[in-house]
Design goal:
about 100 residues, WH-like_DNA-bd_sf, Transcriptional regulator
């Protein structure tokens, strides 16, 4: 495989999107609910700072895996939900979860 083939490799692009300590757990939380508020996600994540969580969410949003929804109340609320592209990851992550459980 040459560099150009590697650059356009679907596996490389997929793993690049999913890489990040918290992204799989973020996606797991979003598969459980239709949409989740930022603060709920943060509370469900063990020991992640709000800054890091916001960065990981922004990356997933830039990759069009999740959608950010702002509700202009007082105080303002921010929700996240999976896009159609993100929902397609459900069976893949489920298989990875099962595979990982079989390793232990």
């Amino acid at each position: 495989m040459n560099f150009e083939e590697f650059k356009n490799c679907g596996l490389r692009r997929s793993l690049n999107i999913l890489s990040g300590k918290w992204k799989p757990l973020i996606l797991h939380n979003l598969f459980e609910e239709d949409q989740v508020r930022f603060v709920e996600l943060w509370r469900n994540m063990p020991r992640v700072s709000k800054k890091v969580l916001a960065e990981q969410l922004k990356q997933l949003e830039e990759d069009r895996i999740i959608e950010r929804i702002e509700v202009y109340n007082f105080p303002p609320e921010v929700y996240y939900k999976l896009t159609e592209k993100g929902q397609k990851l459900g069976p893949i992550l489920s298989e990875l979860h099962s595979w990982g459980n079989g390793l232990g």
